[in-house]
């Protein structure tokens, strides 16, 4: 991958510049065969990823047109916060790549305020009896999901920024639940766990976006891997580092020859012909680079090499470099196969974690998650 990096970086800048023109004010989530990104509500969980790409490009290049295109997103999200909305556990995915990175890069006080507001909102979703962050809204009162591993960075940032350790207490308590209940002994993970919301007792694992309650949804693996690596970076507690490594070893052992994950590692005895999920691949690659950075170089090299193999395959086999009209960076993502939604498509979070991982390989030291 190292040899390919300068060309990839050049191609990425051309691509993202074109996306700015193509996307306009859209809040992209999925692009199907026609290569045209949709336009989702601002409270939809993926709304932070496109601005996140822009902020990384701004920081890496110093160019102002990326900042200009990224600037107003956190204000739009705040407006939605004070109307009827469906914000939930994923506010980290929305405010970390917008309000908080904006504050970190520019000192913008509105960004800081919005970030702290989102952290308070997420903290308010903590179930004390069960020690978990509640997923979603409506009737799903006792549900928690592995995806929230990635939202914990919002709480750790808020603890540092406000010097108020409550945010860290909640973040660590949820992370402990991830280690104890979500990550299985073999390093695979549960997607959704249902708890009794009053007693806090664990009831069962639910299938969620994987093939079944005991399967191994690859994006869930990636959320846990990257999320636990981030949690180690913030807390320094090696229990999270070990958890991230356990998930990483399982993830890497499941990869097919081209290093790009199938949508669920236990969907079938033979994974032959099953859809891939390039978003699981990119998120895992970025998490593997986080792990590599957390370890002495000799130990970390395993994870760095694995991330590079994944990224090279994505670059060579799944990218849209030769299709300027295509609004996404990568193809081959799977959104929600059990629901029959968004199979073999482009996903904005797949694009985001690709850019994040490439930036890390190029030496980007700041972090969004
Ligand atoms: N967080 C929802 C998903 O990964 O599809």
Secondary-structure map:
Blueprint: H1 5-23, E1 30-31, H2 49-61, H3 64-70, H4 73-81, H5 91-106, H6 109-123, E2 126-127, E3 132-133, E4 143-145, H7 152-162, H8 166-182, E5 192-195, E6 202-206, H9 218-235, H10 238-253, H11 278-294, H12 297-317, E7 333-336, E8 341-347, H13 348-361
Antiparallel strand pairs: 1-8, 2-3, 4-5, 5-6, 7-8
Helix pairs in contact: 2-3, 2-5, 2-13, 4-5, 5-6, 5-7, 6-7, 7-8, 7-9, 8-9, 9-10, 9-11, 10-11, 11-12, 11-13
Bound molecules: glycine.
Glycine (GLY) is lined by residues 45, 147, 209, 219.
GO molecular function, one term: hydrolase activity
InterPro entries: 6-hairpin_glycosidase_sf, 6hp_glycosidase-like_sf, Glyco_hydro_88, UG_Glycosaminoglycan_Hydrolase
Family: Belongs to the glycosyl hydrolase 88 family.
Describe the structure.
The protein has 369 residues and is mostly helical. It has a single domain (5-361), classed as Alpha/alpha barrel (Glycosyltransferase). Helices cover 52% and strands 8% of the residues. The chain has helices at residues 5-23, 49-61, 64-70, 73-81, 91-106, 109-123, 152-162, 166-182, 218-235, 238-253, 278-294, 297-317, 348-361; strands at 30-31, 126-127, 132-133, 143-145, 192-195, 202-206, 333-336, 341-347. The longest helix is centred in the last third of the chain and has 21 residues, at 297-317. The two termini are 23 Å apart. The mean pLDDT is 97. Glycine (GLY) binds at residues 45, 147, 209, 219.
